[in-house]
């Protein structure tokens, strides 16, 4: 007898054909849907700068949800980056070897203008815009590819 006089139900494990199946999540534009990000975006950036970059952020957030980008992510995860220390003649080269998927993702980030160097000036607006761009880059669904060094 089980708890309170009930007969326990035998537990069965899940398999590929029966048991528990979870629906995949629906990926949406994070620039629009992330309330905390939008609140900070609107609170910290001046209106003129915010309106000038808003369309750019929204387009990028849509672009990273395309099958092409997910294919690049899969390739970057399947073919991990590494450091090539020596060439075939025994010479020290120390170069980073990246997969095609990784290179395509890097190109996407540069094309979208989301790669930046921290400003050397004291202009807080540039620093804020840079940090928003960095945050936007990290928020994009699936666009997290680890470089393993």
Automatic annotation (TrEMBL):
Gene3D superfamilies, per database record: 6.10.250.600
Xref: InterPro entries: Acyl-CoA_dehydrogenase-like (IPR052904), AidB_N (IPR041504)
GO molecular function term, any single one: acyl-CoA dehydrogenase activity
Domain annotation Adaptive response protein AidB N-terminal: ranges: 28-115
Any single Pfam family the record assigns to this protein: AidB_N
PANTHER family from the UniProt entry: ACD11 DEHYDROGENASE, ACYL-COA DEHYDROGENASE
Descriptive protein name: Adaptive response protein AidB N-terminal domain-containing protein
Organism: Talaromyces stipitatus (strain ATCC 10500 / CBS 375.48 / QM 6759 / NRRL 1006) (Penicillium stipitatum)
Classification lineage: Eukaryota, Fungi, Dikarya, Ascomycota, Pezizomycotina
């Amino acid at each position: 007898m089980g708890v309170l006089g009930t007969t326990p139900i035998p537990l069965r494990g899940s398999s590929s054909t029966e048991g528990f199946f979870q629906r995949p999540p629906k990926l949406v534009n994070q620039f629009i849907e992330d309330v905390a990000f939008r609140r900070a975006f609107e609170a910290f950036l001046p209106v003129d700068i915010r309106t000038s970059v808003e369309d750019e952020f929204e387009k990028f957030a849509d672009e990273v949800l395309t099958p092409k980008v997910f294919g690049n992510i899969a390739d970057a995860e399947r073919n991990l980056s590494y450091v090539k220390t020596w060439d075939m003649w025994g010479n020290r080269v120390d170069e980073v070897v990246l997969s095609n998927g990784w290179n395509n993702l890097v190109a996407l980030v540069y094309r979208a203008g989301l790669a930046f160097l921290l400003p050397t000036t004291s202009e807080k607006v540039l620093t804020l815009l840079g940090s928003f761009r960095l945050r936007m880059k990290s928020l994009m669904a699936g666009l997290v590819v680890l470089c393993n060094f």
